[in-house]
Amino acid sequence: MTEMRFIHETLGQRVRFGTGESADGVAAEIKLLGADQVMVIAAPSETTLARTVSADIPVALVHQDVRMHVPVEVAARARSAANDHRVDAIVCVGGGSTTGLAKAVALTTGLPIVAVPTTYAGSEATSVWGLTEGGTKTTGVDTRVLPRAIVYDAALMTGLPVDLSVVSGLNALAHCVDSMWAPRTDPINRALATEAIHALAAGLPKIVSAPESLAGREETLYGAYLAAVAFASAGSGLHHKICHVLGGRYDLPHALTHAVVLPHVLALNAPNAPEAEERIAGALGGDTAVRGLQELRHRLGAPRALRDHGFRENQISDAVDVILPVVPDTNSTTVTRDRLTYLLRDAWEGADPR
Ligand code: NAD
């Protein structure tokens, strides 16, 4: 390397990481904000966790109306509930869908968010919001939606079923892989992503072999945070552009779509992205990046085929039409209609990556 020149922006938020310490952490953050009318957002399946986490804060209401991809009408209901109860802060306890709803409220109200994640999606560490209307998902970037603080507690993760943990952890791994070549990638993002891959590759197999054990949950949560920080700075690369279309347009499950598509994008890009190839292969301990990823996916029993999860063969050509115009110019490999068609077909039928 002869020259290093980059502009890197770090997002400002406090991170508290401590197993079994979420109630104390949330209480400390709410006190720092001076809030006394808190809206807790948690889906019905996370309400028990939310009760524990919010035991020591002044709760004005618990809002449970959470949907994946934040439909605009769901956002509108949450905003009016916040307004009716004159809330002055939000605590969200849940996965990316719950964090996403808190962000939708913050976007129009400016309310501060304390995020308590229960999946590895990483939305809590980005200033990206998303809303869905009539089958179209719109995303934007706004610092108002960045949670002021994140409270990570691996003890909250043990209830996340193994299959969801695996796909969510692979969603975090996708943040790392795409951060290697995304449009705003820089050496800091790539360093964070590499450390994140190490942590995810160490943690996820432990979750599969011992779901109740906290060690694997902690490593995976740590890796998921680093992955999201890298992704927030690097932006969306080819992989996220593809999954964004598949998830929003055909209503495919977010994390699972990432888990299935990732090896195919890696196989397409890695041959023309030598630094990414070396970093990913090294962190996964494979003789190539793709083989390292496939070995990990095999150990985890990861899903292989989108056709098993709602994507239809006759949707491939429509997906290609919508994805092609949004392929980043900086992508390491030229993406032609034929290549993208093969990639989606392979992901649809569960073929090995080419
Ligand atoms: P999710 O939030 O929909 O959660 C998946 C399922 O897991 C849900 O049924 C949920 O109730 C359940 N669950 C969550 N935590 C649990 C726990 N601890 N125990 C048991 N069950 C639990 O899915 P996700 O993958 O976390 O998030 C997906 C959404 O987040 C998508 O809409 C995606 O676009 C968005 N997202 C946004 C960003 C961003 O930067 N804005 C980043 C990643 C994901």
What can you tell me about this protein's structure?
By secondary structure, the chain is α/β, with parallel strands linked by helices. It folds into 2 domains: 14-157, Rossmann fold; 162-349, Up-down Bundle (Dehydroquinate synthase-like, alpha domain). The protein has helices at 22-33, 47-53, 72-84, 96-109, 162-179, 187-209, 214-234, 238-250, 254-269, 274-284, 289-300, 316-323, 337-349; strands at 14-17, 38-41, 59-63, 89-94, 113-117, 128-133, 136-141, 149-152. The strands form 2 sheets. It has a 6-stranded parallel sheet with strand order 1-8-5-4-2-3, sandwiched between helices. It has a two-stranded antiparallel ribbon with strand order 6-7. Strand 4, helix 4 (96-109) and strand 5 form a beta-alpha-beta unit. The model has no long low-confidence stretch (mean pLDDT 96). Residues 43, 45-46, 68-69, 94-98, 100, 118-119, 121-123, 126, 128, 130, 156-157, 159-160, 164, 168, 171, 254-255 line the site of nicotinamide-adenine-dinucleotide.
Q: Please state the second-level CATH architecture of the largest domain.
A: Up-down Bundle
Number of strands: 8
What does the radius of gyration come to? 20 Å
Helix-residue proportion: 40-55%
Major sheet size, sense and barrel closure:
6 strands, parallel
Q: Which descriptor suits the 3D outline?
A: globular
And the CATH topology of the largest domain?
Dehydroquinate synthase-like, alpha domain
CATH class categorisation of the largest domain: Mainly Alpha
- Alpha plus pi helix count: 13
Strand order of the largest sheet: 1-8-5-4-2-3
The class by helix and strand makeup works out as: alpha/beta
Uncertain residue ranges: none
Q: What number of structural domains do the residues give?
A: 2
Distance between the termini: 30 Å
